[in-house]
Amino acid sequence: MTRPRKLPSQQRSRFTYEVVLQAAARVFDAEGMAATTNRIAERAGVSVGSLYQYFPNKQALLHELTSRHLDHAEKAFAVPLARIRTTPPELEAVVAELVSLAVEENTPLATAHRAMREHTPRSREIERRFRRLADLVVDGLVAYLDPPDRRHDESRLRARLVVAGLDNQIHQVVLDGGSPEERAARTRLVIEHTVPVLRSGSFPR
């Protein structure tokens, strides 16, 4: 089983569930996939039996952490994507905001995010959620790049390729470590390389 066994219904159970998840994020961040359910239960201050009431193994913990991460990211990206539809800024500003937001979403607990990205069981639900987040960003970029009366096929392909490439680059930027200044410099390079790709073939702004 790679998902939580059940969702808690009582207040005390919900509290335990949340404490275990918070502890899991911290332990995965400290230890990566060397993390164990015993260590997570110890960090949470609960018995491993209490942990197993909700999570049969660490893959189930990763599944729930990834689901929540995608929830948060989707809500975070929806805000600027809605704004650029109504008040379009320069392309450089659009790319800078979206890339910086992605870095911000993944920088805290970066090692835990690596574990989620590389080891979360790819259930249909998780695959669907990843596609939905990518589609949200792609649709927003296409709406920004093209006027309503233009065929979107080329821009959609370009945006999809850019989003897929950015996903890998941003995770590399975040997970390479280094100082905040080094991370900021790498983020600027990602932005500088992305703008010309999106601009080619789009209507000028």
How would you describe this structure to a colleague?
With 205 residues, the protein is mostly helical. Helices cover 76% and strands 0% of the residues. The protein has helices at 11-31, 37-44, 48-54, 58-86, 91-106, 110-119, 124-145, 153-175, 180-199. α4 (58-86) packs across α6. It is elongated, with a radius of gyration of 19 Å. The termini are far apart. The model has no long low-confidence stretch (mean pLDDT 88).
Write the layout of secondary structure elements.
Blueprint (H helix, E strand, L loop, with lengths): L10 H21 L5 H8 L3 H7 L3 H29 L4 H16 L3 H10 L4 H22 L7 H23 L4 H20 L6
Helix pairs in contact: 1-2, 1-6, 4-5, 4-6, 4-7, 5-8, 5-9, 7-8, 8-9
Indicate the percent of residues in helices.
over 70%
Tell me the Rg in angstroms.
19 Å
- Strand content is under 5%
Largest sheet: none
Distance between the termini: 50 Å
Number of helical elements: 9
Instruction: Give the averaged pLDDT, no decimals.
Output: 88
Order of helices and strands: HHHHHHHHH
Ranges where pLDDT stays below 50 over 5 or more residues in a row are none
Instruction: Please tally the β strands and state the result.
Output: 0
- The computed structural class is mainly alpha
What is the general shape?
elongated
